[in-house]
Amino acid sequence: MGLKNNADGGLFGGIDPGKTGALVFIRGGDGGIHCATNAPVKDGAYCIETMSGMLATHCGDGKKPLLVMLERVHATQMGGKVSNFDFGRGLGIWEALLVAHGITADQVLPKVWQKELWAAADIVHKTHMPNTAENECRCMLDGINCACPPKVKVDTKATSLACAKRLLPGQDFINKGKSGRGKKPNDGIVDAYLIAEYARRAHVGN
User: Fold this and answer.
1) What does the pLDDT look like over 13-30, one tens digit per residue?
2) pTM
3) C-alpha dihedral sign at 113, 117, 119, 121
4) What domains sit in the chain, N to C, each tagged with a CATH number?
């Protein structure tokens, strides 16, 4: 996903702050991707200097992004203590760097941007789920109308990918990396793109 030097309408950013997350900037004019890159991590630790450089690249000549939105996740939605710590550390680092670069930022919960962007046609369900109360479909809870059978859980990664491809037809959301051999859609880039699109819509609505 290469850099496109066109900031028509200003830039809007989305950050999935996890170690497998990403930073995506989109153009305010057409909503297309300006650039996308995964979070720099080396030996299991965030590369803060590289993260800062990623932001600095888009703040030169007074052309700062109009708004960058970070995903905020409650501890109860994370996998465990280590996941909570890593995600919280990543969120804190990105927040500090955004402040240091003078970039306007805000936070959004996953269910908020999902409700804004997901459409009924995007919904993908997990199959062979145990018939328990925990696996009830989230669609109606989140205000999305769909024809889900009872006791079926939404596959959030697949649904977000379907949503992203609907919004940007022809974009594969594959980060081929330095090897150039990436083949699968990158979940971090997908989420960061959708968060950036949420930021764009939130700004236009103000």
Assistant:
1) 999 999 999 999 999 999
2) 0.82
3) negative
4) 11-109+156-161+168-205 (3.30.420.10)
